[in-house]
Write a structure and sequence with these properties.
single chain, mainly alpha, 2 strands, disordered C terminus
């Protein structure tokens, strides 16, 4: 199982919003520049995040994107699920009607266990935790934060 660039880029953008949480909206092009992501691609990623009430937009000349909730209340599972959809390793984990061997399949138990572990890990990882890790990995970049418009 491998996450797409959608998931990875969405998480990176949300880490940026977490680093600036409480300082007002951040323009999309600034997030894109700092993360080296195309503006248009990042805009597409923000749409499902808005729908799931993870981010919201502020219009106007001082507008941009902000987190809809405190970053400690946003976990990776909901972020990745917003842009990827199901994270189940195989369809029968979530939809029992897709296979007639569910009751006799030994591998399904492994897939269900894997799914549970993935979900648990992602649910127990918040944006605050990731932002803290980011600060330690790039202390100069975290200090050099200024959004002067």
């Amino acid at each position: 199982m491998q996450l797409s660039t959608k998931a990875r880029y969405a998480v990176r953008a949300l880490i940026e919003l977490t680093l600036f949480y409480g300082h007002g909206p951040i323009m999309l092009r600034e997030i894109a520049r700092r993360q080296n992501i195309s503006d248009k691609y990042l805009e597409q990623l923000m749409s499902p995040l808005r729908t799931r009430d993870i981010v919201y937009t502020v219009r106007g000349n001082r507008g941009g994107y902000m987190l809809s909730r405190e970053p400690g209340n946003i976990n990776l599972y909901e972020v990745i699920q917003s842009v990827e959809g199901s994270l189940a390793p195989v369809p029968c984990v979530e939809k029992t009607d897709v296979c007639d061997k569910i009751d006799i399949c030994a591998t399904r138990e492994v897939w269900c266990e894997l799914n549970d572990k993935i979900k648990e890990t992602l649910e127990n990882t918040t944006l605050v935790e990731l932002a803290e890790k980011q600060k330690h990995k790039q202390p100069d970049k975290a200090k050099n934060i200024d959004y002067i418009i």
